[in-house]
Amino acid sequence: MRTIKLTLAYDGTDFAGWQRQRGCRTVQDTLEDAIEKITGVRAPTLASGRTDAGVHALGQVVCFRTESHLAADVLLRALNAILPRSMAVCDLAETHETFHATHDARRKRYRYVIHDGRIRDVFARRGAWLFTYGRLDVNAMQRAANALVGTHDFTSYETTGAPRKSSVRTVHELTIERGRAGEGDFVSLEIEANGFLYNMVRTIVGTLVEVGRDARPEGWPGEVLAAKDRRRAGRTAPPEGLFLLKVEYPRTDEA
């Protein structure tokens, strides 16, 4: 048996999330269908983490085991030939037998995109939150976001439903920028951490947006963090603006 590691990009708009669900079209089922067509065997896949319905990925890491003797480059081309246009395998290699895409992940980086222009961008609706409540103050959002960097209990930014042993996470970086040279109608938030709670990124975005539209003071996200109460935070931002950018592992995993 060989262990295969691949990096997957997908537009999550038309999927009910990563994880297989009865009666729903999911990224996991679609990928496993393609692997089965090529190798003749259904191979269960493991991802670095689940993405919700409507959430996208540029660098989702997936692993599976197979008895197929197809070379890595052949398998990559074959998968991309039959996967839907909303999915693409960006990289594929044989890796160590013990590699686990979920448990071995050490850092993840997400991007959240907001469009706050006066006129909605009809071509951005699948990949951004079309924010229609006025121009956001990106500088105020960044100052507010600084309180969330570091090791904290993020209970206030977690939607219940996915029990964890601990709600403590370390946010290594959280940056908010507007386009190039501070211009344009797109705001991009990037956050990197050693792990994320359920809906953590989208709740952080929804909370910081309240600061950006001058509905809350800059110190409010820090107060929400200290409260350890989800009811104190802002709304959960919609899924279409969220992208899993990359996942980092502690060592080189190629065999």
The class by helix and strand makeup works out as alpha+beta
Averaged pLDDT? 94
State the domain count.
Answer: 2
- Write down the CATH topology of the largest domain: Alpha-Beta Plaits
Sheet with the most strands, sense and barrel status:
10 strands, mixed
Instruction: Report, as a whole number of angstroms, the end-to-end distance.
Output: 13 Å
Rg (CA only): 19 Å
CATH superfamily of the largest domain: Pseudouridine synthase I, catalytic domain, C-terminal subdomain
Percentage of residues in helical conformation = 10-25%
CATH architecture of the largest domain: 2-Layer Sandwich
Beta-strand content bin: 25-35%
| Element order: H for helix, E for strand | EHEEHEEEHEEEHHE
**What is the CATH class name of the largest domain?**
Alpha Beta
Shape: globular
Our count of helices gives 5
Explain this structure.
The chain is of the alpha+beta class and about 260 residues long. It has two domains: about 1-105, Alpha-Beta Plaits (2-Layer Sandwich); about 105-245, 2-Layer Sandwich (Alpha-Beta Plaits). The chain contains five helices and ten strands; from the N terminus they run βαββαβββαβββααβ. The protein has helices spanning about 25-40, 70-80, 140-145, 200-210, 220-225, and strands at about 1-10, 45, 55-65, 85-95, 105-115, 130, 150-155, 170-180, 185-195, 240-250. Strands 1, 2, 3, 4, 5, 6, 7, 8, 9 and 10 form a ten-stranded mixed sheet that branches. α1 packs across α2 (about 70-80). The longest helix is centred in the N-terminal third of the chain and has 13 residues, at about 25-40.
